[in-house]
Amino acid sequence: MQNGLEPASVTIRDVARAAGVSITTVSHVLSGHRPTGELTRHRVLAVVEQLNYRPNRVAQSLATRHTRTVGLILPDILNPFFPQLVHAIERSAIHAGYRLLLCHTDSLESLERECLEDLVARRVEGVIYMRGTAAPNPVLERLAEEHFPLVVLDEEVPGLVAPGVYAMNRLGGRMAARHLWQLGHRDVGVIGGPRGLVSVCDRVQGFQETYRRLGAPVPEERTVFTGFSVHGGQEAGRGLLLRHPELTAVFAANDLIAFGVIQAARELGRSVPGSLSVLGFDDVTTAAMVDPPLTTVRQPIRRMGSEAFRLLMGQVRGTWEPVRRQLPTRLVERGSTAPPERVRAVSAAGGATPPRSPGA
Amino acid sequence: MQNGLEPASVTIRDVARAAGVSITTVSHVLSGHRPTGELTRHRVLAVVEQLNYRPNRVAQSLATRHTRTVGLILPDILNPFFPQLVHAIERSAIHAGYRLLLCHTDSLESLERECLEDLVARRVEGVIYMRGTAAPNPVLERLAEEHFPLVVLDEEVPGLVAPGVYAMNRLGGRMAARHLWQLGHRDVGVIGGPRGLVSVCDRVQGFQETYRRLGAPVPEERTVFTGFSVHGGQEAGRGLLLRHPELTAVFAANDLIAFGVIQAARELGRSVPGSLSVLGFDDVTTAAMVDPPLTTVRQPIRRMGSEAFRLLMGQVRGTWEPVRRQLPTRLVERGSTAPPERVRAVSAAGGATPPRSPGA
DNA sequence: TTGAAAGCGCTACCAA
DNA sequence: TTGGTAGCGCTTTCAA
After folding, report:
1. What is the mean pLDDT of residues A38-45?
2. CA distance linking residue A130 with residue A151, whole number of Å
3. I need a surface site. Which of A7, A184, A284, A330 has the fewest CB within 10 A?
4. Are residues A105 and A209 in the same domain?
5. Rounded mean pLDDT of B276-305?
6. Is A101 a member of any domain?
7. DSSP 8-state class, residue B154
8. Distances (CA, A) of B314 to B72, B209, B309
């Protein structure tokens, strides 16, 4: 207790000695891997209790070659989307007897690589990889090639052959578009997240493709990109609204951005949804709590998390197979979207009002 | 690659053989723990590179008796307060070469105990313990007695002699009270978090003690307790406002509860802050983004996290000492608090208006 | 039903 | 400047 170097806890050897049996025996009464005499069993257990012995999991891991640990690489714990995802994963993990080793990368590619290396060196049995950058990651590629247990979650890695779980982002983008269209919005803007992220492309493209088909393609200069953050959304929103005051609605690639857009709109004296509709993506818990509750495209976060863990376990104790699971999104209508002012005005003036009917 | 049992990665032995040197040498060129010949150094490094050798951290840990891992016990990752705390801790940890092993307890005492045991068995070098329940925890007590490196964070454990980092909760409660008082609120309610939590007692008592001193003690039936959640706040808020429609302000023991109270107020047709002022605690990131931006007592989350890790490291490589660090809170005024209607009405009617002047 | 002993992959002491 | 080797604390054959 005095020296700082040696916690010197009680070992299996101590137990064996105190119980007057062999180490082997202690090991087996504890693991139940082979029958033991009733008598010795009780003697050993008593000693274990008395000495408060707990097997050293490090030594166990070295001997058995498994650590009952899974590595988690995540880009941004401050985005509430990820804690929700982590929560789901952790529930599955605990249930399966696994623990999570956390690696926060701040969306930095260099950190992603380092973390991955470190996790492997620590002999985690698998990794759930959530990226925050579009940069290629050689370490990740190597692991995938070696069929190291790995599942990519949320953000797809282009070109990587590995199991993954994603939301139907393109579909989500389409849902967003259809919703705004039906409300009567014709002048819409889009604020995507970090350029190059597959999820961003999909959401944005799904949105644009729908508007194009409906006959009102979104002009290129009405689509901008920014970071997945409130601040990013605020900046980008301000710029977009300043350059295009004619916009009546904005689709944001995630909720954080949407929050920022709402703030920007207010600064510019535009009420939401009165003068501007805002639509988000994720359906983070707080989405229901912000000023006008946010209309958003919900990702099935819980299912994504548990499915990811399930896939990982499949690999850990079984065959590797690059399954690609896509989970459906759905639109959650709340208070941040409404028909554009013009349409409402017309409606109020009376009469049926198919918004900008094709022939008009 | 076929068999599921043996990842059989390359070991130090392989490197030694391939480089034509001893295992010892390989170990030392990698650790730098002793000088090595320029030539052999390069040879070894080349082989390491070529074989893509990475030392097995499990084996290292067993040999060196350190894991470069810290355990984190946290009650509720869905409360944004904790991700923010985790973020701060993780920054310090990564900087010091440590990794975080995550244990989510869902505020369950049984899980807290299990996690603690498991973390110790996994030989983490220390534990940062954030509790979510008021239940006593024998395992924790044992660890503290044994001077196992441990720091209690955020939520104090009564009677436990161990290092800890906390916000000045009582002070925070006082700040909240003074603010509402100065705005002119005389009929106030309090919604605490889980009964028995020290932080809750401190915040509530700080608040009440101030109102008492100012001559308007808060009647007991205007103080209620609930879970640290939006839902809890909503339920409790609804009940309180229904029973006491005369209240003009509510102090909530954390931001989540405050959010819930705001929702409850709306349901009851009361605007915030027009007809009801709401004050929170924590200053979670989203506090600035909700409907009326939340006036709240800010905890110095980042500093709490980094200080906790610093204290832990102090114990890991040094002397145990039950330091108790308390960090100051401060009031952040935003939009959810305002003078009560009566006062505003009177003010508008003209004339100086010491709210409910003692002689009135 | 029990034990001896050979690892698991490293570190670090002791020699050379 | 280098190597042999005894652990670290456990699991698991193989024998008894």
Report:
1. 95
2. 9
3. A330
4. no
5. 95
6. yes
7. S
8. 17, 36, 9
Q: In this predicted structure, what is the pLDDT of residue A350?
A: 47
Reading the block at residue A352, the tokens are: 């049926």
- For residue B140, count other CB atoms closer than 10 A to its CB: 22
Give the tens place of pLDDT for each residue, A240-299: 999 999 999 999 999 999 999 999 999 999 999 999 999 999 999 999 988 799 999 999
pLDDT value at residue B357:
37
The whole-angstrom separation of Cα A24 and Cα B80 is: 48
Of A35, A55, A75, which residue constitutes the final position of a domain?
A: A55
**Chain A 217-256, residues with CB within 8 Å of chain B CB atoms:** 230
Determine the residue type at A341: E
A292 shares its domain with A152:
no
Q: How far, in Å, CA of A79 to CA of A153, rounded?
A: 15
pLDDT score recorded for residue B115: 96
Measured between its terminal Cα atoms, the distance across chain A in Å is: 86
Instruction: Give the integer Cα–Cα distance in Å for A357 and B132.
Output: 57
B182 Cβ contact partners less than 8 Å away, ≥ 6 residues apart? none
Domain that holds residue A40: 7-55
Confidence of residue B356 (pLDDT cuts 50, 70, 90): very low
Is position A73 within any domain?
A: yes
**Domain at B30, CATH number:** 1.10.260.40
How many Cβ atoms from other residues are within 10 Å of residue B176's Cβ? 31
Give per-residue pLDDT as tens, B91-146. 999 999 999 999 999 999 999 999 999 999 999 999 999 999 999 999 999 999 99
Same domain, yes or no, for B230 and B242? Answer: yes
Residues B247 and B340 in one domain: yes
Nearest CA-CA partner of A60 in A14, A96, A19, A27? A27
User: Quick check: is B208 in a domain?
Assistant: yes
Q: What is the pLDDT of residue A347?
A: 56
Q: Are residues B214 and B338 in the same domain?
A: yes
Q: Which nucleotide is nearest to B33 (CA to C1')?
A: C12
Q: Are residues B97 and B108 located together in one domain of the fold?
A: yes
Is the entire prediction scored with pTM above 0.85? yes
Please state, in angstroms and rounded to a whole number, the distance separating the CA atoms of residues A16 and A5.
Answer: 25
Mutate one of A81, A94, A142, A319 to test the B interface: name it (highest B CB count within 10 A): A94
Average pLDDT of span A53-81: 97
CATH assignment of the domain containing A90:
3.40.50.2300
Task: Number of A to B CB contacts under 8 A, please give it.
Answer: 132
pLDDT of residue A346: 55
Could you tell me how far CA A110 lies from the centroid of its own chain? 20
Residue among B191, B194, B356, B173 at smallest CA distance from B265: B191
B360 assigned to some structural domain: no
A146 neighbourhood in chain B, CB within 8 Å: 1
Q: What is the DSSP letter of B323?
A: -
D11 nearest neighbour residue (CA to C1'): A63
Q: How many domains are there within chain B?
A: 3
Tokens of B338: 């305002």
Residues B25 and B118 in one domain: no
**Nucleic chain C contacts, protein chain A, residues 35-64, CB cut-off 7 A:** 35-37, 39-41, 59, 62-63
